[in-house]
Amino acid sequence: MARLSDMVAVVTGGGRGIGREIALQQAREGAKVAVLARTVTEIEETVSLIKGEGGQAIAVSTDIIDLAAVENAFARVVSELGPVDVLVNNHGSFQGFGPIWECDPLVWWRDVEINLRGTFNTCRTAAPKMLARGGGRIVNLVGGGTGNSFPNGSGYASSKAAIMRLTECLNDTTIGNDVRAFAVDPGLVRSAMTELQLSSEAGKTYLPGIQKLFDDSVNVEPSRAALLIADIAAGRFDTLAGRLLRGVDDRDALAEEMDAIVAADGRALRFSSVEQGKL
């Protein structure tokens, strides 16, 4: 039997790129998949690909920052597929490039709103129902700037660091009832988001390092994150709930290191041990 048989998975931002690969992999593992995004044609194409491989999926067009729309989307998922077991928050925006005094403040804030508020909305909608059923797994995608400075990418970085902390707080609130939350950094993936960084004048001016990374062959296949998230959905990494997992991780090695990571309180947003002692 497939590992995710009888499970229902919701994947946001599932119309292309990393999200599409995550949705496909969830379906390959046996899950019924709801593909959420704003662009109908893209999510319908993802659903068509899933069905072409013999899977079951529906496309649900949703504005992720509209809480009522998110609640309606989840109600439809439950009605058509069943209760949600796995939520993957893959949606993301990164269009505010440059120093904050050069960025359009509305664009900067829109990045934060889509990334952070969108994740809040889906978690707020899904978590209570998972708690009522006694289990579930939530995966929130993070990225550049989560644990380090990201010059000229402050809106994206701030939102992703906030999602990491939200993930930790959510997990610590719900894990007692077997609802676990995880953060996943897929790594640098060639996607519509990175193409904008590479092609726009602002991207070329303020984020030239992205092109250099690709020139140096730093290009993580989206399947790495998709396979990792399938493992998370199947419970392989429950020990690391509330922590950061990466698409570039060797999954077998990571499984062997889980207890050591927890003992060292690794893969988390923390002050250094020296600084902790001063507080």
Would you kindly provide a written description of the structure presented here, covering whatever features stand out?
The chain has one domain (about 10-190, about 220-265): Rossmann fold, CATH 3.40.50. Helices cover about 50% and strands about 15% of the residues. It is of the alpha/beta class and about 280 residues long.
Please name the defining characteristics of this protein.
7 strands, Rossmann fold, single chain, seven-stranded parallel beta sheet, 279 residues, oxidoreductase activity, acting on the CH-OH group of donors, NAD or NADP as acceptor, alpha/beta, 13% strand, globular
Layout: helices, strands, pairs:
Layout lengths: L7 E5 L4 H12 L3 E6 L2 H13 L4 E5 L5 H14 L5 E4 L15 H29 L2 E6 L12 H21 L4 E7 L6 H8 L1 H6 L1 H8 L6 H12 L10 E3 L4 H13 L9 H6 L1
Parallel strand pairs: 1-2, 1-4, 2-3, 4-5, 5-6, 6-7
Helix pairs in contact: 1-2, 1-9, 3-4, 4-5
CATH class: Alpha Beta
Lateral arrangement of strands in the main beta sheet: 3-2-1-4-5-6-7
Share in β-strands = 5-15%
- Total tally of structural domains: 1
CATH topology: Rossmann fold
Under the CATH scheme, which architecture would be assigned? 3-Layer(aba) Sandwich
Number of helices: 11
Q: How widely separated are the two ends? A: 51 Å
Question: What's the helical proportion of residues?
Answer: 40-55%
Order of helices and strands: EHEHEHEHEHEHHHHEHH
Radius of gyration: 18 Å
The H-level CATH homologous superfamily, spelled out, is NAD(P)-binding Rossmann-like Domain
How many β-strands, per DSSP? 7
What summary fits the major beta sheet? 7 strands, parallel
Which outline best applies? globular
Overall average pLDDT: 91
Class inferred from helices and paired strands: alpha/beta
Low-confidence stretches: none
GO molecular function, one term: oxidoreductase activity, acting on the CH-OH group of donors, NAD or NADP as acceptor
Keywords: Oxidoreductase
Pfam family, one: adh_short
InterPro entries: NAD(P)-bd_dom_sf, SDR_fam
